[in-house]
Amino acid sequence: DGASCSVLAYCASNAFERTLVTVENPSADNKYYSASAIAYYSTREYARTNRQMATLAYKPAGGIERVDTSDPLITVSTDDMWKNLDEKHANMYLDPSNRMDSWQRGNASNGTDLVDYIAADSLNYTVTISIYQLLRTVPVLPMTQDGANMLANTLDSAYNSLYTAGIIGPGVSQDGKSF
Known about the structure:
By secondary structure, this protein is mainly alpha-helical. It is built from 5 helices and 3 strands. A 3-stranded mixed sheet has the order 1-2-3, covered by helices on one side.
């Protein structure tokens, strides 16, 4: 409808980084598309399970019905609809191949995959909290090799938990050692 299009345009024009806009079926009774998408991210306990970070795109969601592109309230062609939604980085829940209903896209309003922002926020939070916990547990962090080792071990533990969650990947340090 007109209201949702103006919201799409506003969010896309302002390149909102952490805004997930979804398009719903105009005549559907169940209007929980956005809630279903956000629940996909918010119910994943990356720090407590072996479930890795994943994108929303092409994932099924329970409890919502797909957008019916033949709905009489949709007054534009399917091609034009996709073009308009792509320009505004909108997300839809539908079945393009008649095999499985799933989210299409998974983008924030600026066009970037929303997972990138969730991963960056998670990395920032995990490292910050780990350092604060270290500083809280030792009266004074010595400015010696022992202090440097405590700090390195704290960061190593934080990075290992982020790696296990799929938020960061392995790499090679400047000294050539794999990690």
